[in-house]
Amino acid sequence: MKSRRxxxxxxxxxxxxxEVGFLPLLSSGVYGFSAEEAVADDCRYVVLPDGGWDWxxxxxxxPVVTEGGCVYGKFFDKKAGFIxxxxxxxxxxxxxxxxxxxxxxxxxxxxxxxxQEHGSMITRELRAACGxxxxxxxxxxxxxxxxxxxxxxxxxxxFVYPSDRHGREYGWGWSLLTTPEALYGREACTAEHSPExxxxxxTTHFRKILPEATDRxxxxxxx
Length: 223
Known about the structure:
- This protein has about 220 residues and is α+β, with helices and mostly antiparallel strands.
- The protein has 10 helices and 8 strands.
- It has helices at about 10-20, 35-40, 55-65, 90-100, 105-120, 125-130, 140-150, 180-185, 195-210, 215-220; strands at about 20-25, 45, 55, 70-75, 80-85, 120, 155-160, 175-180.
- Strand 2 (about 45) and strand 3 form a beta hairpin.
């Protein structure tokens, strides 16, 4: 896949994700295979003269997730990215077969039960609800959430931003987390194939869209 420099809008990024099926947000280790490399140069991160920043790609994440017919989470070697709804059932099917169910009484189970109770929560609220509000607990908790995203148990529903006294949103925003079954329904997460068949379909597709990638790179992306 060669790097594309002609995507100037959220709509263009949505169309590209539907075309390729999978797209990491930032560098994936495979040249050209990321939203960061697909957008035009003036849509990349830039520091402004007043010390602020502008990053159109970052601002597009919310609309792409809520309107673009794709799933977002830390799916690619613990890095965030998009998966089209067309390919989600096979990816979900394979990843669920690779990761064990959350053990009874485990922290992962507590996180999932908390999300099921509340529907969706921003990361810091979920962390507090699960009792991870002490010092140095943020990184540890984020590790559990990342594993749940890698196993397709948790996805991002949207992004929530704080507002200043003028009602203007600012900052990097917080992920609004939920389960894919709650967001899309169980049927939308059900594949017509066995996990082994889903893996073969995924491998074939990745080799098609990334002809220059090595088998090792593809295996790391599929998980």
